[in-house]
């Protein structure tokens, strides 16, 4: 099982040093969250908390995940980065294709593109994108991005996007992995049908096991059961070596963690304390050899 460190809601001036330390102690990747802005009044509930409340406020720091990946990639050599997840619905696929391709090239193929639709109507409407039919439009966006990133002269004529022959150079020298987030049946079908993996929000191990079972059945339905597939999970009720072993047994391939939160520290804890948490976590889980037993 891989280990990814999430840097959600932390001070952005800590990111470079946290990336360096994460690589030094043996983490596989950094998960990069996405938030465009904080609206004072939200038209929809946040879908990943029991009461629909947001876990952040107007002063919580965020950084564009693609810019963060490029910056942290410049000071590391083995650490991977992926968006967790980028909200496609409020953006344009051709602009995103240029940005994603640039990050993939600048990091020497150490970037994965985690995608979702987005939950807030304001993020769509205030960025000039329609909220209606967002799922179908995002499906077409993913198709456009994959087509353009594959390289060469391409054209596209779809329901939502239409363009003549164009080419973006240089194309990444390896395919950029696409990971799909979301817990709904539609999102799971999207992940099983077109992606290289699925990303959870906060879930219990029981919920994860049930969802992984659904994904396995859907991938078989789409004839993709034998293809590699990542399960990137944020589990809220399995801790310690035994807990991590249980996650591996149910099919989690990438455990997304925030070590300083496990140590009782806040998102805005001092940098040195976060670095110490990374080292302790690595000693306990990454280097302890539990996966070999």
From TrEMBL:
<dbReference type="InterPro" id="IPR019921">
    <property type="entry name" value="Lucif-like_OxRdtase_Rv2161c"/>
</dbReference>
<protein>
    <recommendedName>
        <fullName>Luciferase-like domain-containing protein</fullName>
    </recommendedName>
</protein>
<dbReference type="InterPro" id="IPR011251">
    <property type="entry name" value="Luciferase-like_dom"/>
</dbReference>
<dbReference type="InterPro" id="IPR036661">
    <property type="entry name" value="Luciferase-like_sf"/>
</dbReference>
<keyword id="KW-0285">Flavoprotein</keyword>
<keyword id="KW-0288">FMN</keyword>
<keyword id="KW-0560">Oxidoreductase</keyword>
<feature type="domain" description="Luciferase-like">
    <location>
        <begin position="10"/>
        <end position="231"/>
    </location>
</feature>
<dbReference type="InterPro" id="IPR050172">
    <property type="entry name" value="SsuD_RutA_monooxygenase"/>
</dbReference>
<dbReference type="GO" id="GO:0046306">
    <property type="term" value="P:alkanesulfonate catabolic process"/>
</dbReference>
<dbReference type="GO" id="GO:0008726">
    <property type="term" value="F:alkanesulfonate monooxygenase activity"/>
</dbReference>
<keyword id="KW-0503">Monooxygenase</keyword>
<dbReference type="Pfam" id="PF00296">
    <property type="entry name" value="Bac_luciferase"/>
</dbReference>
């Amino acid at each position: 099982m891989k280990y990814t460190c999430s840097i959600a809601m932390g001070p952005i001036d800590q990111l470079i040093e946290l990336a360096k330390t994460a690589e030094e102690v043996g983490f596989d990747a950094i998960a990069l969250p996405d938030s465009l802005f904080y609206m004072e009044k939200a038209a929809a509930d946040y879908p990943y908390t029991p009461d629909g409340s947001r876990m952040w406020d107007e002063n919580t720091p965020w950084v564009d995940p693609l810019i963060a990946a490029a910056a942290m990639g410049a000071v590391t050599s083995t650490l991977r980065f992926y968006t967790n997840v980028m909200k496609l619905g409020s953006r344009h696929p051709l602009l995103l294709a240029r940005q994603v391709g640039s990050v993939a090239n600048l990091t020497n193929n150490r970037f994965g593109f985690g995608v979702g639709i987005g939950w807030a109507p304001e993020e769509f409407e205030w960025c000039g994108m329609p909220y209606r039919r967002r799922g179908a439009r995002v499906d077409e966006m993913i198709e456009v991005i994959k087509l353009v990133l594959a390289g060469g002269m391409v054209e596209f004529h779809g329901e939502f996007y239409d363009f003549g022959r164009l080419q973006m150079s240089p194309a990444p020298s390896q395919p950029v992995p696409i990971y799909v987030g979301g817990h709904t049946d539609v999102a799971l079908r999207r992940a099983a049908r077109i992606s290289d993996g699925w990303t959870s929000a906060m879930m219990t191990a029981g919920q994860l096991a049930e969802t992984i079972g659904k994904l396995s059945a859907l991938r078989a339905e789409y004839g993709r059961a034998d293809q590699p597939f990542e399960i990137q999970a944020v589990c809220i009720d399995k801790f310690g070596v035994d807990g991590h072993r249980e996650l591996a047994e149910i099919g989690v391939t990438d455990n997304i963690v925030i070590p300083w939160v496990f140590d009782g520290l806040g998102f805005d804890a001092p940098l040195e304390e976060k670095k110490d948490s990374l080292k302790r976590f690595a000693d306990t889980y990454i280097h302890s050899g539990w996966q070999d037993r």
